[in-house]
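[SOLVED] Predicted holo structure with NAP

Edit: marking solved, answer below. Original request kept for reference. I posted the sequence and ligand SMILES and asked for the 3D complex as structure tokens.
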Amino acid sequence: MRIDLIGKTALVTGSTQGIGAAIAAGLARAGARVGINGRGEGSVAMAIERMDAERIGGRLMEGEVVAAPGDVSTDEGCERVLSALPHVDILVNNLGIFGATPALEITDDEWRRYFEVNVLAAVRLTRAYLPGMIERGWGRIQYIASDSAVAVPIEMIHYGMTKTALLAVSRGFAKAAAGSGVTVNSVIAGPTHTGGVEDFVYQLVDNDLPWEEAQRAFMREHRPQSLLQRLIEPEEIANMVVYLSSPLASATTGGAVRVDGGYVDAILP
Ligand SMILES: NC(=O)c1ccc[n+]([C@@H]2O[C@H](COP(=O)([O-])OP(=O)(O)OC[C@H]3O[C@@H](n4cnc5c(N)ncnc54)[C@H](OP(=O)(O)O)[C@@H]3O)[C@@H](O)[C@H]2O)c1
């Protein structure tokens, strides 16, 4: 399969690092013009510099990357992003915050903050970009969900709630786009090797182990339900997102597609 996104414009929220940065790089490698988003102009500029360095280093990146800074959990931040990228063909709602808090100690403010950052930001951007996609007869919208959507962790039920909500939001907007040429899906990502995760792993397993062994020990002892038995690399999530963003994925809509290493003990979705 050859994925060609030349001529398409994409926005990936929260793409200055981690899974978002890998998705942005994957879309750019397929030829899309990609908006890089984070809260500050500085972090966005640094991410673009890193991508340009990769390009020079030989990992072919066809598409242009452009700055689209703004805190998309606020109206003002969204407006900033919309003025940088008034129209997109591909919207990847990747932004998501997470953190552990005992279930009965999550305050009202925290519940609201999680909802505003992880759910409402994605809804607001969908509302802004979906009508244009429908009008043009082509578009791709994705929401990066998590195994926590269906296997809600006891230490992060506020996070799990937002990821379950994204599955409903995705299914609902797919109905709103029915028959238009626009597809809307969510991607259920499993435990992934992103910034901070290595430190977290070494807090739980023998510090002297090399990374490969350390992560396998971590998965075996602390994430035994994973069939992959290692952390997922951000590029492995990105590969699915790039495929779903492409014309090749034209018959996949309203779904929740898993890239979870078999973490969720279920056959469907
Ligand atoms: N990591 C995992 O194991 C895992 C597993 C399943 C699902 N996921 C999901 O995958 C997605 C990405 O996770 P990650 O671990 O790659 O994230 P991450 O490394 O923590 O990166 C977060 C990104 O979001 C940006 N950001 C934070 N708040 C923002 C805001 N209000 N507006 C705009 N940008 C903002 C940050 O940029 P600035 O600091 O520059 O603002 C950064 O680029 C999330 O939805 C997460 O729930 C992750």
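OP edit: The CA atoms of residues 146 and 189 lie 5 Å apart. Thanks to everyone who chimed in.
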